Amino acid sequence: MAIDPNAAGGNGTDNGNQQPNPLTTRQGHPVYDNQNTRTVGPRGPMTLENYHLLEKISHFDRERIPERVVHARGAGAHGYFEAYGTAGSEPVSKYTRAKLFQEKGKRTPVFVRFSTVIHGGHSPETLRDPRGFAVKFYTEEGNWDLVGNNLKVFFIRDAVKFPDLVHAFKPDPVFNRQDGERIFDFVSNTPEAMHMVTFLFSPWGIPANYRQMQGSGVNTYKWVNADGEGVLVKYHWEPKQGIRNLTQAEAQEIQALNFNHATQDLYEAIERGDFPEWELCVQIMSDDEHPELDFDPLDPTKIWPMEQFPFLPVGRMVLDRNPVNYFAEVEQVAFGTGVLVDGLDFSDDKLLQGRTFSYSDTQRYRVGTNYLQLPINAPKSPVATNQRDGQMAYHQDITEGSNPHVNYEPSSQNNVTEAKRTGKDHTPHYNAHLVRQKIPRQNNFGQAGERWRMFEDWERDELIRNLVNTLAPCKEFIQKRMIELFKQCDPEYGRRVEEGLRQNSGNQQKGPIGTTQSQDAVDQAEQNAHDAKPY
User: Fold this and answer.
1) Which of 57, 205, 274, 456 lies deepest, with the highest CB count within 10 Å?
2) Which residues are known catalytic residues?
């Protein structure tokens, strides 16, 4: 719902016969003068008892919470998910007992946050970067968060490498600028990243906007049915608006005019009633090792072949309402990969296991211990816990009729009790040593080479151009290592990067990934500037 600036109180004036709402302090006290502080005479010093000033300024000093380490720049919208009741041509209950999927036409409210990953909250939305695609389902059984990206794969397969990955892509800790040499220094020693690098440096690394991009859960999850039987599952959002990407040159032209273009595009599309829509599809695989594949199905750097594991539509999502307050909704919304409802479960994907701790832990630090009491994060189903207090506790999770003196379980004094099971437990069996080892079927180059060969000619040209521009200023030993990795993906892939670097050997301009004239911009700012006299 949009705020009407002409509504009573919207602009602080009396509109016709409508009496504006009086301005108050946070304590509810009327504010009779919001223009002048209390001073000794009109020119004298202020006094300490200026409570309205102190409250107003002290709140202003604290009106930002810590920015997300990743996914800081975001936009969001409300909508609904409508289930088909089927997975492809079969009843969805064959695979999962999750209630939101069972009934055809059943609608579940959702909130979606789109984002860029690496740079800060006001960075341009045209930068080469993965895009976050996070969906919060407010189901009748509590919240489900499906937290993913626009690309279907990731750089790493073990969560222990996530801080290193992000540090390599973040600005240099000394001169505070993104540096392709740091990125390729890391990637050249992390061959599992080649599949993701091939996507990122192609036009797929800069989606045209949020409405016209895919989404993916990236990690492998599980579905569990009423009998406790589990299957592996991957989630994919397919946009009904089509998929559109930008070249580096096109993105830089847009950035010169508007660095908020994707946020503006999403908001204005919804305002005019052009509601964006995605179809949710799943790929399903039996829960075993699948020796017939040349990769491990739990590996998030891999795509499951569609010809073997087809996309099965299970529902559609429509975004039809913009946020009223960006901070309260888009900034404070908190997602976690561990937020699952009954019938959904975790796989043994190492990256997923680490994300499951990290994401919710981040929200407790960033937003606060009671972040789940905020309206945007609170489930719409009843909440009854024995968790109490903590910073900014708005209420206690006490249900009507329960004993407020009892905040523990078990108890014989009319307090909350364990819920009844809705189906058999899923009980996978393990028989292995506890080790620190890589997965055996890594195949770091096969799918990256396939992707290279599947690209259209213009996409391959753009990929080589962006890689060469970013690699050219790097040290020679980093270039050589990367060329060898590209050749293992596909000989032509490596050869074209090698030839491009040979032709671009004079380019020593370091800058954001894909750019070519970062130093020229520095020089132009000085040379083209206009003199001004001091005043």
Assistant:
1) 205
2) 71, 149
